[in-house]
Amino acid sequence: MPLHRRLLVLPLVAGAGLLAGCGSPGVTLEPGPAAADPVCARVLQASPDRLGDLERRSTTAQATTAWGAEPAVTLRCGVTPTGPTTDRCINVERPDGTSVDWIQLESDDPNYPANAALGTGSWAFVTYGRVPAVEVVVPAEHVTGQPTAFLVDLAPAAEVVPAERSCVGAGDVK
Predict the structure, then answer these.
(1) pTM over 0.85
(2) Which residues lie closer than 8 Å to 113 by C-beta, 6 or more apart?
(3) How far apart are CA 96 and CA 101, in angstroms?
(4) Are 91 and 99 in contact (CB under 8 A)?
(5) Are 74 and 137 in contact (CB under 8 A)?
(6) Taking 60 as the threshold, does the pLDDT of residue 141 lie above it?
(7) Where does the record locate the signal sequence feature (predicted)?
(8) Three-class DSSP labels, 61-101
(9) Which residues, 6+ apart, have CB-to-CB distance to 18 below 8 Å?
(10) Rounded distance, CA 47 to CA 141, Å?
(11) How far apart are the C-alpha atoms of 63 and 74, rounded to whole Å?
């Protein structure tokens, strides 16, 4: 094949490879009602490329990201904030002293995310006292220790949304 034809074929083959990569739809998620809030873009920028040993994956919705094989660990920014609740509140404190409050949703909660039903079990968490709220779903397939371990790695992203309230315990009520 003459050199000028080889030079023409090479970009076409490379372009076809790029287009084939674009055909993968990624993890299917629904956007939260406030997904268009500009702070959600900053939350995604602050989220890690790797979550533990899980690599980041593309998703089908605005203000969402995912890590690992199906069912993936997912993050959605812009979900409806949780109001006052008696659900379990988990305060995740980082070594620098900053912390994020997360509500652990129970499967009968109306706010329990539909994608949490994927797999053989999962845990769902929503930030408390931050608007818009951030939701994280951790399928059992990706848990090797505590399901809350991923929340430590996701705290810097969740902290992008300023805290307006924090959880209180029975000892805090007077």
Answers:
(1) no
(2) 76, 79, 105, 124, 135, 137
(3) 15
(4) yes
(5) yes
(6) yes
(7) 1-20
(8) CCCEEEECCCCCEEEEEEECCCCCCCCCEEEEECCCCCEEE
(9) none
(10) 21
(11) 11
What would the 3-class secondary structure string for the chain be? Answer: CCHHHHHHHHHHHHHHHHHHHHCCCCECCCCCCCCCCHHHHHHHHHCCCEECCEEEECECCCCEEEECCCCCEEEEEEECCCCCCCCCEEEEECCCCCEEEEEEECCCCCCCCHHHHCCCCEEEEEECCECCEEEEEEEHHHCCCCCCHHHHHHHHHHCCCCECCCCCCHHHCC
Q: How far apart are the first and last CA of the chain?
A: 85
Residue 33 tokens, joined: 């009602």
Among residues 113, 91, 89, 92, which one has the least CA distance to residue 103? 89
> What are the distances in angstroms from CA 7 to CA 2, 17, 132, 166?
9, 16, 51, 62
Q: What is the pLDDT of residues 108-138, one digit of tens each?
A: 667 777 766 555 578 899 999 999 999 999 9
Mean pLDDT of 84-113: 85
CA–chain centroid gap for 59, Å, is 10
Look up tokens 């399928």; give the residue. 139
Q: How many residues does the chain have?
A: 174
For 55-64, write each residue's pLDDT tens digit.
Answer: 999 999 999 9
